[in-house]
Amino acid sequence: MILNTELEYKGNLFPSKIVKYEKNLNVLSFTAENGVVLQVTVRRDSILRFRFTTTGIFENDFSYAITKYASRGYNHLEVTEDDDYYIITTAKLICHISKTDLRASIYDAKDKTLICEDELGFHWEESYEFGGDVVKMSKTAQPGESYYGLGDKPVDNNLKGKRFENWVTDSYAYGRETDPIYKAIPFYTGLHNKKAYGIFFDNTFRSFFDFCNERRNITSFWAHGGEMNYYFIYGPKMSDVVANYTDLTGKPHEMPALWALGYHQCKWSYYPESNVKEITAKFRELEIPCDAIYLDIDYMEGFRCFTWSKEYFPDPKRMVKELADDGFKTIVIIDPGIKIDMDYSVFKEGLENDYFCKRADGPYMKGKVWPGECYFPDFTRPEVREWWSDLFKELIEDIGVKGVWNDMNEPAVMDVPGKTFPNDVRHDYDGNPCSHRKAHNVYGMQMARATYQGLKKFSYPKRPFVITRAAYSGTQRYTSSWTGDNIATWDHLNIANLQAQRMCMSGFSFVGSDIGGFAEQPNGELYARWIQLGIFHPFCRTHSSGDHGDQEPWAFGKTITDVVRKFIEIRYQLLPYLYTAFWRYVEEGIPILKSLVLYDQEDPQTHYRNDEFIFGEKILACPVNAPNQKGRRMYIPRGNWYNFWNDEIVEGGSEQWVDADLDSMPIFVKEGSIIPKYPIQQYVGEKVIDELLLDVYYKLGKETSEVYEDATDGYDYIKGRYSHRSFKLLGKKKELIIQQHKTGKFVTTYKTFKLNLHGLPFKIKKVQVDNVDILLKDLKINGDNTLTLTKEFTELHIVG
């Protein structure tokens, strides 16, 4: 008997016609003749979830990305049908499901315009090697459509015409277009006809996105396993898409401590203790503000996590306290690889309790990292995360370390193909056992989560501070992040700018780059220009590989040191402004940095801009990103903007030349803004704030600004002990009116505001506070248009 031993290759398979429809509250199920089932879940009026199975049975519905705190509920849901479609209508969307093949088309419920439609729609290919399916989705690109997001991809903001892979990868010295890279955030925003929507493909397998690269008018996404499971999020404002995605995958669980937003200094590595002390003393001597000093892997005994080198750091508790007394928080690194060593308690405990990852056939996953041969905890097991979090007791509670950065958690393995675990490594996946193919992209996220739980426990009543290199969607709930091992080049200064903007529009705002570049050595000009960009990133840290020379602010001579100091001081003055932007991010999911397209999607000129961005709500910044420049061309968004340095007013909506010598950079403030500022401090908490400076930028018309403050650390703010002030500004030809409204029980240390009035078009004749005329001499109006008044005022009239 002769058999055909060739496996039948089926190619792409498609759903057939609908034979059954069921509705269970907000879950609508459509079953096709060939066993494919589509579940459409209406989560909100503007959020629909699409979930497909090809076997008629759905696996356990479990996701590390979706937070239990996500908003739910809708105002309207109606399902009707005609000859060709089932029609799902909510208050914001109309969705047509085709009766012949399950393809979906989604329309704006208000004006019935098409937002997004399936091309081939859902299809799949059987994966004989691993079982399961390769799941695919293709959609038609609308005319003039642009695409944004996907986390830390080192490419221009607009993704149209490109193709990407999501597979968390240790990418040392990556370059422009390197893909895949450190993070997997399978979420993008589409924009056409002034309307934006988002797609979040919640699948942790190796996934791909094609934005009209392979086929000109088709965008598609697919994964090497798992489910076709995606969320459609409608705006129509881009900022709402990002805020709703952030709500779905989780806003940060708490505000960062204010010191975490200061300037941080790091190197691989500062050791021994005398070297650490020398660095910190130099900061104070040169009066360059700094809040945190970092210890890289050399602080450990033979790179064993949770140990200290007796030679380099004989008494870490004393050292950490002495640093704290001088205003420095100590941050240490912790990697996932645990050295195989029976005399090492962490290894022994992990082994005895069977906490390490295993290969498919039973042996432990063994890999080489800094300590040599290591085993790796399975962070997808709750009891392993609990054990890991308890390991931080000594570091945090006893020694007094204030923060931890998780590195190498892609997970990175040295000297093997692919630089990570083999596919057959097994994981618990919180009771949903799987191979590394499924768990790889969440491994770093779950390590960061366990680290966060440890810091939250042992830092209490202070707030935890964790940084991670690897991430999947939702990691922003637990930690901050940086963009990995970049290079000291001008191109990398540009890439850092792009990556920070892209991470913010992917729901992850607490991010920064290694200022100056990690690999190789910057010159002074590049370092100064990078600091200028870095002070506008939510996470602000210089980090470098010691192999390439020194990278402290004073390493490049006095001229550069002065420029660097000047900009770090600006960062410290703007801390209340940045903290307020953070509060909006934590409360509402609003990104801290906004690419111009996110700021003004209606202006087509913004759709391909890369360099300029909005910091918070009111400040426009643009780095000088090439050597020997005395300025640059940049696009100023629509509206009027004040030059930060000289108060010149420029009208936006066009590209303009802006002067910016080495000690300057293009910074503009939106007219009508009120920007809160603190005095310069060498570290957060060095000074008692006895007056809040408010920079008031005159505008003919209305503008609202706000400032959020609390105790800068701890959890009292959750109980209402915060201060939120909203300022309404109304400018007339001969009058400026500012109304203040305050909520919250926190009492700030300062009693007065010092108003610094910019661009006032008249000479002050009269001032009224809460309907009472104030003598000008009592207000201390100086020749420089500043005046001092009580923080309790509700209405201020300045009359010309």
UniProtKB/TrEMBL annotation:
What Enzyme Commission number(s) apply to this enzyme? 3.2.1.-
Q: Which organism is it from?
A: Hyunsoonleella rubra
- The protein here is known as Glycoside hydrolase family 31 protein
Cited PROSITE patterns: GLYCOSYL_HYDROL_F31_1 (PS00129)
Pfam families in UniProt: DUF5110, Gal_mutarotas_2, Glyco_hydro_31_2nd, Glyco_hydro_31_3rd
| Example of a GO MF term | hydrolase activity, acting on glycosyl bonds
Per the database record, which ranges form the Glycoside hydrolase family 31 N-terminal domain?
Answer: 38-210
Repeat: present as a keyword of the record?
Answer: no
Family from the record = Belongs to the glycosyl hydrolase 31 family.
Q: Which UniProt keywords apply?
A: Glycosidase, Hydrolase
- Domain (Glycoside hydrolase family 31 TIM barrel) spans 254-581
CDD domains documented for this protein: GH31_glucosidase_II_MalA, GH31_N
* Domain Glycosyl hydrolase family 31 C-terminal positions: 589-675
Domain named DUF5110 is located at 691-759
The cross-references to InterPro entries, in alphabetical order and at most eight, read: DUF5110 (IPR033403), Gal_mutarotase_sf_dom (IPR011013), GH (IPR017853), Glyco_hydro_31_AS (IPR030458), Glyco_hydro_31_C (IPR048395), Glyco_hydro_31_N_dom (IPR025887), Glyco_hydro_31_TIM (IPR000322), Glyco_hydro_b (IPR013780)
**Chain segments annotated as coiled-coil in the UniProt record:** none
